[in-house]
Amino acid sequence: MMRHHGERQFTGLHMLAALVTFFGVIIAVNLVMASFATRSWTGLVVKNSYVASQTFNDTVAAMREQDELGWQGKLSLDDGIIAYRLEDRSGAVIGAQSIDITFKRPSYEGADHTVALTRRDDGVFAAPHRLDDGIWVVEVMAAAGSRTGWHQSFRVTVAGGRIVR
Hints:
The protein is an alpha+beta fold. 29% of the residues lie in helices and 36% in strands. It has three helices and eight strands; from the N terminus they run H-H-H-E-E-E-E-E-E-E-E.
């Protein structure tokens, strides 16, 4: 005797399962992406743009005053030692009181950190410090010169424990 197998039907339960699976995947991906977004860089450059705008003219004046000094800063990273040399127009080392360097990732605030450098006998400021490979935004603050001190900001690329710019 031959048995006749019935065809499988697509029921409402199947449709419900397909819709729940589809939207479940969409919602799960959105939750993961939202989680990544809230744990990484906020995108803010300043906390309050109105307050920052009130001091804009003073900031520009301080930058012009700093440019007129003609000073140049040079950063190096060798064998786990960060060194910063601040020079005048003639190449002579500037006798700063203190230098702090803040290292920031361009897109992640969690790795930001500041290193206080100490003056060596040759006038160069240095400290032992290792930087992870990648791109860093470097902000140098030195107590020297003008009323606002010396400020320099630039990007560097670190590879193999050395700055490759």
